[in-house]
User: Fold these one by one.
Assistant:
Number 1:
Amino acid sequence: MNEAILVPLDGSPLAETALPAAVTLAATTGRDLHLLGVMVGPTWMTGLAWPQMGLLTQIPDQQIERSAYQEYLTGIAAGLAHAGPAIHTQVRQGDPAGEILAELAEQPALTTVALATHGRSGLQHIVLGSVAERILQAAPVPVLLVRGAPQRGRPTTGSWCR
């Protein structure tokens, strides 16, 4: 893989607001795009009510979610095909910030991260934390933060780029 820009996407219109800046940066620098989806996985509640049932249903649910995530990333990549840069996709599972940092550590060709941020502050920031802040503090490469504001009625399939 050539040098690439990592773009973490969670399936939301807000996360997709980083795509135009990432595409522009890739086009002007000749880098590829690396779209990363991170499945958060089952919630901590899954096994509390009936631990054995949680274990039995967890694997098929994860396979369905991984497949849906890959389909989502493939759709975004198809919509960006006209933009020029080569596009790679990857789905990981775990803590979003931790998995983004792990991807950076495992893929030396990733030289920049383009990431949307909610721009939370105050109590919301304390309670919900910030993936963007964790990436900004720990990433070994430059981070481009795009403050996103999802548009009402905007589709989540990346149709903005078609």
Number 2:
Amino acid sequence: AMLEILYEDPYLVAINKPSGLLVHPSWIAPRSTPNMMSMLKKQLDAEKLHTVHRLDRATSGVILVAKELAAAQQMQHSFVSHEVQKTYQCIVRGWVEEAERIDYPLVPKKDKYAEPFAQENPEPKEAVTDIRPLASVELDIAIGRYPKARYSLVEAKPKTGRKHQIRRHMKHLLHPIVGDTKYGEGRHNRLFREHFDSHRLLLMATEIELNHPVTGQPLKIAAPIAEEVERLYKLFGWCLPDNHKTQ
């Protein structure tokens, strides 16, 4: 299977990563598990590529990869100093009524496989996400003690880059992301599996904006919503992002 390339020049490439695909080989996954970086090396016939930020395995959408070291270092610097604007969309439980800034520090998540010597009890670190509701839906499906199930489509712009930040922030607001098996709610995940045959985390990286690491030109790269999620938007009567061209 070929990866969808959203943008490419001599210095960097942007991929539309499918949900469920690892970015890197992982300690936890079997050796034979496909990963985006080795697929991309093959596809571009490149010996070396550099990751500059991450996307959770379950998240789909736009991710940037540098083709050479200097560009990689410059882009990493841009991410660390929050000069990169990332936009996500997610489907969450309940009705999100208004735009707000979630300013809620998060304790760093220790990856006991990748960082066996990480600090045992780390301090919470600053974490900020701006969210705004885009649409909502009420379904004639009873859930728990409610006769109907309510969901919202939310845009999220993280201002910091903590692990699982949007997922943890939405859980903190009591609007967990549907399909999130770690921070979400079983009965909502089950409803989407059973009624809509939806088996994934409904968090999509839709857009990334930055200044080009070499030319300095402003760059805006958008990823279309994955097909299996587009189907839900249509079902719920929601608009797809402006950048969305049906494949």
